[in-house]
Write a structure and sequence with these properties.
single chain, 2 domains, 9 helices, 7-stranded mixed beta sheet, Rossmann fold, alpha/beta, Quinone Oxidoreductase, Chain A, domain 1, about 25% helix, about 325 residues, globular
Length: about 325
């Protein structure tokens, strides 16, 4: 059994990476439906720095409530240390990975131990080490729920209609903007797995990486604008979003769809005139879907790219790396 205390990163206030503190805190106890995981690696994701900043990028009406101090983090890979009496399917010693309690902000993954809902976990693929497994859950499930199967009936806080995926296969063309990042590099590979042609948009430094992952065409956004050179795409997955996202509407054929992973601004009249749809969703924890993705990871059909790793105690440096941008794959924290 673990000691009574552990080290964890906590936020006592909001601000830049300097507010991430390496504290000594009690080891959590698993409640009903939970397992205690000894953490080996933690994936770093945008919601981690959104939380650090105080969620100021979210509209107040959909901003989750939480109390400080808080342990950030949702993506974890580790070893089961204890199992609640009502949990089946996991045993002490099992290697697991998961996206914890998302879309909430109480995952608590930046720690040596975490109490995790068993339903959020899957067995870690045997062929994947903990670092790569920790890089998969949020980014991989985001790509999965946008492109392959939503898998839940929870409404998105950002649109009234339920998100619906676009059938992918031979003859389908998908443009992925921000293809080198966490979600983007998973989306490219999942679209190729389904047989689609993929146009990858990123900076030129990522071309060889994205070609290796299977991109059929590459556009260096520093030299050319996709909306000026691409037409008749079935689906755009925009992993960047923001005010400029609507420019990708011009790349779509009639009946096509734009899926923005992050917030964008769109005009209903324009989309109606073009005969296209804009749809998004909010990724949710799912051990069952992660197990499906895990089988692809174990087979080598999909792989996790790791941009960089940092010890848990150096979470500040990991967030500073994220702030510099141009990330290739995932940033991961390691736990000794």
């Amino acid at each position: 059994m673990p000691a009574h205390t552990m080290r964890a990163i906590r936020l006592h206030e909001h601000g830049g990476p300097e507010v991430l503190r390496y504290d000594e805190v009690p080891v959590p106890e698993p409640g009903p439906g939970e397992v205690l995981v000894r953490v080996r690696a933690v994936g770093v994701n945008p919601p981690d720095w959104y939380l650090r900043d105080g969620l100021t990028n979210m509209p107040p009406e959909v901003r989750p409530q939480f109390d400080l101090p808080v342990v950030p983090g949702t993506d974890v890979s580790g070893v089961v240390e204890a199992v609640a009496a009502d949990v089946t399917g996991f045993a002490v010693g099992d290697e697991v990975f998961g996206l914890l309690r998302f879309p909430g902000f109480d995952g608590g993954a930046y720690a040596e131990y975490v109490a995790a809902p068993a339903s959020d976990l899957a067995h870690k693929p045997a062929g994947l080490d903990h670092v790569h497994a920790a890089g998969a859950p949020m980014a991989g499930l985001t790509a999965w729920q946008f492109l392959i199967e939503l898998g839940h009936d929870h409404p998105s806080p950002f649109q009234a209609a339920r998100h619906r995926t676009v059938p992918l296969g031979a003859g389908t063309t998908v443009l992925v903007n921000g293809a080198a990042g966490g979600v983007g590099h998973f989306a490219l590979q999942l679209a190729k797995w389904k047989g689609a042609q993929v146009i990858a948009v990123a900076s030129g430094a990522h071309e060889a990486f994205l070609r290796e992952l299977g991109a059929d065409r590459f556009i260096d956004y520093t030299k050319a604008r996709a909306e000026d050179t691409v037409r008749d795409v079935d689906l755009v997955l925009d992993c960047v979003g923001g005010r400029g996202s609507r420019r990708f509407l011009r790349t779509l054929k009639r009946g096509g769809a734009l899926f923005p992973v992050f917030f964008g601004e769109y005009d209903d009249e324009e989309t109606a005139r073009l005969g296209v749809t804009v749809s998004g969703t909010q990724v949710r924890s799912s051990g069952a879907q992660l197990a499906e993705l895990g089988r692809l990871l174990d087979a080598g059909t999909v792989r996790v790219a790791v941009d960089s790793t940092f010890p848990l105690a150096d979470a500040r440096a990991a967030h500073e790396r994220a702030a510099r941008g141009h990330i290739q794959g995932k940033i991961v924290l390691t736990v000794a």
